[in-house]
Amino acid sequence: MSYTIGIIGSGHIGRGLATHLAKTTYPVLITNSRGPESLTDLVASIGGSLTAADLNQTIAQADVLFIAVPWTQLSDLANELQRYSGKIIVDATNNIVSVNPFQLADTAGKTTGEYVAALFPTHRVVKAFNTLAAAALAQPTQSDLGNTVIVISGDDDDAKKEVADITKAMGFEPIDIGTFQQGGALQDVGGALSGVELIKVKR
How many domains does the chain have? Predict the structure, then answer.
């Protein structure tokens, strides 16, 4: 399908996503809290289909939004998206609120996917791209054996299939690991797949 893709956040994860999305045939917008002028050098260095935009433009124009902002900014972002509905949101966040000392936000017994989906109730949320370290996302292992795996979870099967297609176009191998509840046990920080780079061997 034909999409306009938006990336909200230009930190290490946002930049890694932009690097791969810009190589696809999709138009890609990237935004941050400092405005498009601050992204001039980043866009020039990545090239391809990547364009800087402000937040309102990115939200309005994108059919698929990759969320790569700090956990503490999610509530504000949810407020910005209240005027819209039906967008696919790719949640690449983790609930880390402090690195030193290390601290995770309380998600009230929910997986992070369930928690984020509840913040965006009128949109189609898919959890993906949160398990790889930023360096591995930006420069995944190059192997003749196969491609780096991106695990995907969510409660909307159609949205997961669409995100899987985009993931393949980015050069990764998507693997659906089930619902938010099923996937979260593996994807969330401390889960078996958190911080692990896997290669799916070609048959």
Answer: 1
